[in-house]
Amino acid sequence: MVTAEAESEFHIKMKISNVCNCAFPEWYSKFKTITTESILIPLPESFLTYLHTDGLVLPNSSTHGVYGKANNLIMDGDVEDEDLRDDELMRMYESDWSTGCSTLIAESPDFGEFDLKVKAAIKTLGGRVFPKLNWSSPKDASWIAFDKSLMCTCPSDVYLLLKSSQFISHDLDQPFDQCEDYQKDALLPSLTYTLVLRKWEPPNPASEFRCFVHNNKLIGVCQRNANKFYPHIIVNKNVVLEDICEFVKIHIAEKFVETNYVVDVVHVKQGHVILIDFNPFGPVTDALMFTWSELSDLITQIKELPCFRCVESEEGVQCSDYANFAFPQDIQDLAAGEDPYKFMDWMKILTQKEFDTSSSSEEEEGTANT
Q: Which residues are CB-contacts of 366 (< 8 A; sequence separation ≥ 6)?
């Protein structure tokens, strides 16, 4: 992602109002017929405090899904198989976790009515949902989920992902830090933070695209998942581009409140495109297969069709943008060389370990000689 300092080099500016208008609650009602069904639940102050608090403790009342685990795990035709029923397995887990331990246990939070609303929303949306807040989803925290996905079947699934995500923390603490009119001590617009639960649709990264719109003109399109080569995108490039251009022109441009924005879409099939999300047109949004400097140049170019980019071979595959989030921050700092003090501490530990090993060897050798 381009830094705020680099942004000034290519004259793309964002304002606080641009970011606010891309928040999910601001646009969903207008575009709900062309996007996935969703339910919005305002976050109570107690839950906001919970997200800001260190540590990870889940509410006792929200540990079970709307439907039993057997409904989610047992395959069709296996209902009568005693070995696949999870009742006994759950009792084993509970027995293991109830074993006596001297470790202090943190108090479990209770969200009361909010917890009930989340459960009801999950049930209404079919028992499986995709969570996000006003702007971001916790996609950087998918590594902590049991199946490494963002599919949630109970409130605890939702809370675990939100609590583990740096993207969510950014939404809460620094949503405007790259806006040109942002001042640290200035009064910011009042925000109502909202939990967005979207009906779960099995993701198909091969059909997802990010579109960059400036002055209501589509200037760039690229595949969202640059971590894989999809041959069919190259084969169907013209059809995909034509459908996306038509979709933006008819359903988005002139209807969205902003004239400069980034919109994510799914090209389901020929002639069928659906909306995923809006993002601000600026460095706070990942340019993926472009750079913001390149997009700035595209603004000034007169072209009939937008610039289209996709992974064109296996050699063009990029590494996962979110793989590093599964590593502890200390390890990330050491690998990036961003914290010399941690490196010094690490070297001291290694030196001490070598010294202890050497001393132990000398003692053993001395004992053997006597």
A: none
